[in-house]
Amino acid sequence: MSIAAQKTEQQNELTVKDEQYERPQTPSPWYGVALAGLVGLMAFLLGKQFPTVGGPVFAILLGLVIRNIFGVSSIFKPGLQFSSKSILQWSIIFLGFGLSFGQVVTTGIDSIVVTIGTIIAAFVSAFLLGKVLGVQDKIRSLIGIGTAICGGSAIAALAPIIKPKDHETALAVSTIFLFNVVAVLTFPFFGHLFQMSDMGFGLWAGTAINDTSSVVAAAYSFSNSAGDYATIVKLTRATFIIPICIFYVVWQLIQQKKSSEKINIQRLIPWFIIYFVCASLIRSSDILPADVLLFLSYCAHFLMVLALAAIGLSTDMRMLVRTGWQPLALGLGTWAAVVTTSLAIQLVMGKW
After folding, report:
1. With contact defined as beta carbons under 8 Å apart, do 90 and 306 qualify?
2. Among the listed residues 50, 87, 64, the one whose alpha carbon sits nearest the alpha carbon of residue 182
3. Rounded Cα gap, residues 284 and 213, in angstroms
4. Pairwise CA distance, residues 328 & 284, whole Å
5. Is 61 among the domain residues?
């Protein structure tokens, strides 16, 4: 090799090393998981001392206080994102080991009328109220599906179809989450005030609270039975994300906005629900010993508290203040329609 070639190779090696040195590396997700775990453990212990409030509510509140008063370093962000999504889904899957398959099917069927009624109420109210308030079409759709189905997850599924701007998606997610927090703090109080049964409250929470995380936080704060029932109702409700997203794809094709749009069914399917059902089947088959099932139940509840702590630690409440009043009014009006519709249908059907 010539001297010139050797110098060129050495310079290339130095350049590669410089680029590797200067390239920002993604922090390990374990930092965020550890932080969420620490806050979650505190919430779990507080929930044991104050069962009326419960660990899930303490987890969200502690996370919000730490995030918005003391701040959270960016080094924790990857782990918090992982905890708030993947660990939450795993906690729900583990909950399946404590519920028989027959109970899952029966609850899903019993709740279907209330679920469909609240979904219709959400979309109709979002459309009409959004028109009155002058909120843009895409934001109306995002807030409508977020309130109707499963909060941020539904918004994330619809966004690639209708192609909103980034700030519109963030605005919708922030608006939905605000009322998730309100629901977690107020639903148990009103449930006791209305003297609702565990089943009645579980049905109300599962059909009227947006995100799955907030459903389980509010329902398990009411009672364990209400939490189990609400989880199944919420997962039944979440499956409607598939037909609704397909409807939006067809609508976009009719409007000739996305003539080459392809429906990616696999991306729309909430796979953790399938795994939840599989866990329930295993529970019903008596394959696992009772001690193992009890251990999985403890794991499910702790992982849930950890995930809720991560959600609180990731939420910047100041962003909600900067969103403007129209989207917030739309989110409030749509959510109020869902809350009252769920209660009204339950009263008519005698499920309270």
Report:
1. no
2. 64
3. 25
4. 44
5. yes
**Is there a domain that residue 24 lies in?**
no
Q: Six-digit token pair at 122? A: 């959400």
Place of tokens 């779990």: 44
Sign of the four-CA dihedral 209, 211, 215, 217: negative
The amino acid sitting at 279 is A
> Into how many domains does the chain fold?
1
Structural tokens at position 182: 């309100």
Q: How far apart are CA 222 and CA 191, in angstroms?
A: 8
Report yes or no on 81 lying in a domain.
yes
Output the CA torsion 340→341→347→352 (10° steps).
-70
- Give the amino acid at 35: L
Asked whether the CA dihedral 52, 81, 88, 120 is positive or negative, the reply is positive
pLDDT tens-digit series, residues 251-297: 877 765 554 555 555 665 667 778 888 888 898 888 889 889 889 98
pLDDT tens string 2-35:
555 555 555 555 554 444 444 457 788 999 999 9
pTM listed for this prediction: 0.70
Residue ranges of alpha helices (H) inside 111-223 are: 112-133, 137-145, 151-162, 166-193, 198-208, 212-222
In a domain, 281, yes or no: yes
Domain that holds residue 191: 31-349
